[in-house]
């Protein structure tokens, strides 16, 4: 014997209204339009409601008779006017080709929102707050669109069929055509008293804030799919997906190239010539970059693995530090004197942009000059 109460998730003393609500909720989750592949569960729910939703069948079931259980249990197959196959035909469109009423619950649409994130989020990943406004299930009616305590009645025009037939004359004679019923939007039922909150739509618009897990490696244009966070459908149908399109904000310090990050560091001419250590503020903290003596403008120092995390694999890109050698300006007389002396020592006083060959000189200054020119 099937446990129909358990199938619908209601207690044995549930009221007719509670049974109906439970059925609607289950049918909405399992409807073939929105949950393909779960037809068996849907059939079980429809079967349970066929019995528990009918006063006579329910009374017989409560006495121990199951119309879908043991065929000798005494039901004799002669239930009420509403049979199981009617329900199945109504939901699955009917095997005979006649379209039944369509479900009032329709799947919701996807939604797309943009999320601005700082570069740091792309480097490490983070959880970001995102405020969205979408249709959500109406909490007053639970999605069925009916004022609490009321229900639906069969559409007068189509008699619950969801479609109406018309006879038209043509050269072939009379032709029967079928069109969807406009009075009930082809659902076969009419809401008696629409819910005042959603006006019978089963959903209301609501602003809410979501926590979005943004993985490392995202870039501008990356889309994150959040299933079930999109628009709730008409009649409280299951929500579509929410697509979050990431926009990585420009950064004042860093330029991104794939998962590598580039920055530049200014080095005084003297430091570039003599060599130094210079601090670079990375996303992982301060790194000391060794600048060897004789560093040229445009030289690049690479810090492995301190760039943006890869989106679909382990590891991170690199950081590239570009040396910007700065020529001093506004020299005082003493500094000028020293630079003149240096230029003299290096034979660069008449330098015009091309390096002139320096005649061989001995002694200390010659060795110093050789050290500077790398010879
Ligand atoms: Zn409502
Ligand atoms: Zn109708």
TrEMBL record:
Cofactor binding remark: Binds 2 Zn(2+) ions per monomer.
J domain sequence ranges: 3-65
All residue ranges annotated as the CR-type domain in the record: 125-207
SMART domains: DnaJ
InterPro entries assigned: DnaJ, DnaJ_C, DnaJ_domain, DnaJ_domain_CS, HSP40/DnaJ_pept-bd, HSP_DnaJ_Cys-rich_dom, HSP_DnaJ_Cys-rich_dom_sf, J_dom_sf
UniProt keyword annotations, A-Z: Chaperone, Cytoplasm, DNA replication, Metal-binding, Repeat, Stress response, Zinc, Zinc-finger
Any one GO BP annotation for this protein: DNA replication
SUPFAM superfamilies: Chaperone J-domain, DnaJ/Hsp40 cysteine-rich domain, HSP40/DnaJ peptide-binding domain
Broad class of where this protein is predominantly found: cytoplasm
GO molecular function, one term: zinc ion binding
Cofactor requirement: Zn(2+)
Function: Participates actively in the response to hyperosmotic and heat shock by preventing the aggregation of stress-denatured proteins and by disaggregating proteins, also in an autonomous, DnaK-independent fashion. Unfolded proteins bind initially to DnaJ; upon interaction with the DnaJ-bound protein, DnaK hydrolyzes its bound ATP, resulting in the formation of a stable complex. GrpE releases ADP from DnaK; ATP binding to DnaK triggers the release of the substrate protein, thus completing the reaction cycle.
Swiss-Prot/TrEMBL domain comment: The J domain is necessary and sufficient to stimulate DnaK ATPase activity. Zinc center 1 plays an important role in the autonomous, DnaK-independent chaperone activity of DnaJ. Zinc center 2 is essential for interaction with DnaK and for DnaJ activity.
Family statement drawn from the similarity comment of this UniProt entry: Belongs to the DnaJ family.
Name by which UniProt lists this protein: Chaperone protein DnaJ
Organism of origin: Kytococcus schroeteri
Lineage per the UniProt record: Bacteria, Bacillati, Actinomycetota, Actinomycetes, Micrococcales
Gene name of the record: dnaJ
